[in-house]
Amino acid sequence: MIRFDDVTKTYMRGQHPAVENLDIEFTRGEFVFLVGASGSGKSTLMRMVLKEVAPTRGTVYVAGKDLSRIPSWKVPALRRDIGMVFQDFRLLPSKTAYQNIEFALAVIGTPRKVVRRLVPEMLEMVGLEDKGKRLPHELSGGEQQRVAIARAYVNRPSILLADEPTGNLDPATAGGILDLLAEINERGTTVVMATHDRTAVDRMHRRVVEMVGGLVVRDEERGTYATPAPVSVISGNLPDDSGHREDHPLEDAQDGTDTEDASAESSAAADDSRGDLSVADGTGSASSPDDVLEEDLIDEREALQVRDEDLLLEDAFAEEPVVSGPSLDETEEERR
């Protein structure tokens, strides 16, 4: 399903590689946790799967296809078979839960009859069948993440990438999100989840791949977050030598998530494999090269139109009345 053959990625000459000599395979139907300190290469690995950045050396295969041989105009089609879930949800704030999911179908020309069937199915699957008319700010964090997962899965992708999907959630809510991802995995979708969530990894007992300084140092079936393996940094068995991160720091000071530095972004933006897909991220500000929300959903003929979200959706959606919802601070019992 996903294979890396001797893959190295260096963003700038003279820097420590973000990923080095990577030889690993994720088979169809697997659930894999990627763990490691910030700057270990997890996000770069995911970006190469999305063909958002290209390896400096080596070959990446997705669904049997050599990504280096896929032209830029075919990248949107590739990404439609890869769902992506983020820590910060990245929902369109002016659209209801129903419309956020509908958007993923409308922009690829799905017939309205099919949309009307699939969206309610997705809302029911994620346990939000009665909240389709609520805006994101009217939903709790866990509910927003469920909408984001439904949007990522509505096209039934063969691969689902999740970058810290439980990072902003309390333990109980995070458990529900893990159960949802496990259900999607049981339906045949390969799930690769990058996380620092010790509880999540220990609870699931799935395959665990640990990265340190761009290298895979541990690959365990039914693993746990900590390990006695001497090569593990997150277990405290090996010093966290993060000096090379000055070359490409991945720690975001705002939220602690993995992001590439400015030099990596500029280098990636110049890569032909990205194509001309820079679009608005749905928050009213221009998206950075790291943002792939719209890139996952929009084919090339619509990439420019989506800069004006309201114009794109004017014909695609029939506006529905918004149901006033509770504040985020209310408990479920108070809402009832």
From TrEMBL:
<dbReference type="InterPro" id="IPR017871">
    <property type="entry name" value="ABC_transporter-like_CS"/>
</dbReference>
<dbReference type="GO" id="GO:0016887">
    <property type="term" value="F:ATP hydrolysis activity"/>
</dbReference>
<dbReference type="InterPro" id="IPR027417">
    <property type="entry name" value="P-loop_NTPase"/>
</dbReference>
<dbReference type="GO" id="GO:0005524">
    <property type="term" value="F:ATP binding"/>
</dbReference>
<keyword id="KW-0547">Nucleotide-binding</keyword>
<keyword id="KW-0472">Membrane</keyword>
<dbReference type="GO" id="GO:0051301">
    <property type="term" value="P:cell division"/>
</dbReference>
<dbReference type="InterPro" id="IPR015854">
    <property type="entry name" value="ABC_transpr_LolD-like"/>
</dbReference>
<feature type="region of interest" description="Disordered">
    <location>
        <begin position="315"/>
        <end position="336"/>
    </location>
</feature>
<dbReference type="InterPro" id="IPR003439">
    <property type="entry name" value="ABC_transporter-like_ATP-bd"/>
</dbReference>
<dbReference type="InterPro" id="IPR003593">
    <property type="entry name" value="AAA+_ATPase"/>
</dbReference>
<feature type="domain" description="ABC transporter">
    <location>
        <begin position="2"/>
        <end position="238"/>
    </location>
</feature>
<dbReference type="Pfam" id="PF00005">
    <property type="entry name" value="ABC_tran"/>
</dbReference>
<keyword id="KW-0067">ATP-binding</keyword>
<keyword id="KW-0131">Cell cycle</keyword>
<feature type="compositionally biased region" description="Acidic residues">
    <location>
        <begin position="252"/>
        <end position="263"/>
    </location>
</feature>
<keyword id="KW-1003">Cell membrane</keyword>
<protein>
    <recommendedName>
        <fullName>Cell division ATP-binding protein FtsE</fullName>
    </recommendedName>
</protein>
<dbReference type="InterPro" id="IPR005286">
    <property type="entry name" value="Cell_div_FtsE"/>
</dbReference>
<dbReference type="GO" id="GO:0005886">
    <property type="term" value="C:plasma membrane"/>
</dbReference>
<feature type="region of interest" description="Disordered">
    <location>
        <begin position="227"/>
        <end position="294"/>
    </location>
</feature>
<comment type="subunit">
    <text>Homodimer. Forms a membrane-associated complex with FtsX.</text>
</comment>
<dbReference type="GO" id="GO:0022857">
    <property type="term" value="F:transmembrane transporter activity"/>
</dbReference>
<feature type="compositionally biased region" description="Basic and acidic residues">
    <location>
        <begin position="241"/>
        <end position="251"/>
    </location>
</feature>
<keyword id="KW-0132">Cell division</keyword>
<comment type="similarity">
    <text>Belongs to the ABC transporter superfamily.</text>
</comment>
<comment type="function">
    <text>Part of the ABC transporter FtsEX involved in cellular division. Has ATPase activity.</text>
</comment>
